[in-house]
Request: fold
Amino acid sequence: MTTEQPLSPVRATTEQASPPVLIRRDDFNAFYTQEMSAVTVFLMHQGATPYEAADAAHEAMTKLLPDLWRTLDHPRTWLRVAAQRCYWRQSSTRTTPTDPVPDRPGGTCPLTTVVISEFQQTVLNALRQLPPTMRTVMAWDIDGFTYPEIAEALAMTPAAVRQNISRARKRLITLLGL
Reply:
């Protein structure tokens, strides 16, 4: 029996080009470049707007500096947990900015690499209709983490993760009319 990784409803353009590569622990710029768009998309899968996701991802990334990211056993997992918490702390009354996102030196804005098609937007809207726990485990699953990794990151049992993902998939099938 083979298992396939689910396709992400929204992908960063850099993710489409190549799979994640191992990053040296002393190369934060490479880690930032590889993970910033991925974490932004991860938060969008949890219901964040692109602006909320980018803000939370940047806030979490700054917590890794100057040296914390080198000492972590699983910096990708830590970054997603921290970004998720930053997103949850954001004010629910925040309004979406109407001004364009300013250009930053070196192209550091993750919003420039996120491409959303009409179908992907439909999937994101369906994900937003899921209960918070289902939405959270689906975001981790879509981002390529295994059930044991998700369980550890979210302080759940692997069985609970499996059950939430199964229920979320059934609900998504209904919501998307598949």
Notes: The first strand starts at residue 11 and ends at 12. The chain has a mean pLDDT of 75.
